[in-house]
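call fold(seq) -> tokens
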Amino acid sequence: MKNKKTLFGAIFIAIIIYVCIVKVSDMALDSSQASHFDTASESYIKLNKETKVVKKILLQENDIKIHTLDINKTYPNKVTDLWNKKIIKPDGKVSRTVNLSSRNFYKAKQINDSTYLILSHHSKRLWNHHLAYFSLLSIIYFLVAVILIRLIYSRQVKRDYEISLITQNLKKIQNGQEISPMVIRSHDFFTPVVKEIQSLNTFANEKRQYEHLLSRRFKGLVGHLPVGVMLLDDKGNVIMHNQAMSVILGQNISEGKHPFIDDIKTYSLSRMIEQTLKKNKNHHKNLELIDNNKFVDANVIRIAHSDEDIERQVIVILYDLTEFKQIEQMQGDFVSNVSHELKTPITAITGFSETLLNGAKNNPDDLDKFLKIINKESIRLNSLVQDILELSQVDEVETFNDEISLDEIVNDITDELSSSISSKNLTVNKKITGPDLVVSSSLLIEQIINNLVTNSVIYNNMNGQVDIKLKHDEIKNQLLINISDTGIGISDENIDRIFERFYRVDKSHSQEIEGTGLGLSIVIDAVNKLNGTIKVESQLTVGTKFEVKIPL
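ret:
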């Protein structure tokens, strides 16, 4: 629409210019003709006394006609009419009448009081004076005008297109989009602008890529943090979070912008966030989440570059303390259980020794009986202390490159248990497959095999059987330990708790069967330290099978 207005405007201006040129040219022609007529008329008047032949020639050459006008008489003709209309004036100056195709010049010369000599000249106007020449010039003018208008119009259309393209590209740069290609021509009006836009686009792309890289790095960093992170705007809407926050809250947090109360159901934590949003003060508190009973260390911190910032954000950081709480509870339970387990043999030893000191030592039967009890409780106390030390040694192991002989370990363990094996008349089958030497932690491997074999002997029946199978798998680079027995077995209700510290499977025979309740706790800790796995299969009165896989 704008280009059409420009086109019509150019055409209108061309026409106006043409009319003005024609008008000025016609006026110049009129002035020239009037001057020529005036000169010829004056020459004719001056030749008034000359011969008639000269006058006639002058009149013919200049196409002048003469009329005699008597103002006292009335002649119904054109000259009289023009005199009466005062177009022809008696002052001797040239006057004229003009129409579309021609003009007539008149000049009056007084002869006497009532008679005037009227000289007239008929002349054509510009367009009729030389019609072919005028038409040719007009055609040439309009051809040139059309060409110029076409050029101007094309240039304007092109310029409007370039302006539109420049405007669109600037908007695309602002919106982070790729710009449309722009052709650069030397010495073009928009060449400097196009070059600057391309430079700006290159700078914007580099900055956008850098910001995208920073954003990815930041999100990657936040995403891999072990603590839960949630970023809120000044309205309390979630604008960013990491996976750890979803895990800690136990919620599938939406990626879109939404109120934080959709994800946080614990009132005390919601209250901390609301107070920070309202009062711009940081809050810190240890609390328990109501959804999953997790203990967290919660920090709610406002983020503002300065006090004048309008947009203020709040970051919520949750550190999961559940495992630490469980460890604290386990440590407390362990101390309590250790105190209880130590108290029993110490009390027995102290009590029976005092009884002996008070006179029972004088009775041989009582002396022998009490000394056996003191010895038994001393052995139990020593075993308990030894197992506690082994538990602490598991956590201290840092070397895993010992060369271990599997056959030597198994033989040493069975030799140590030979008396118990003989007393129950047990059959022990040993089978070692693969290379005898393995590289790992000798202490942990020995603890695993020793405690599993010891339990198989302790909790076995008379005339029972113990199978010890070790396989060094070089293809999978792992050690397989299979220990099975034909003992009392483990019930389904107890099998999930056998790795708890001080847990005894057979409560009814706890006093009869030797053991501290720490053996399988040592095994599971050692297996975890070696990044291995352990599986248990058991049936009451049938027996138990342990399968351990240790990567080497």
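Residues 2-129 form one domain.
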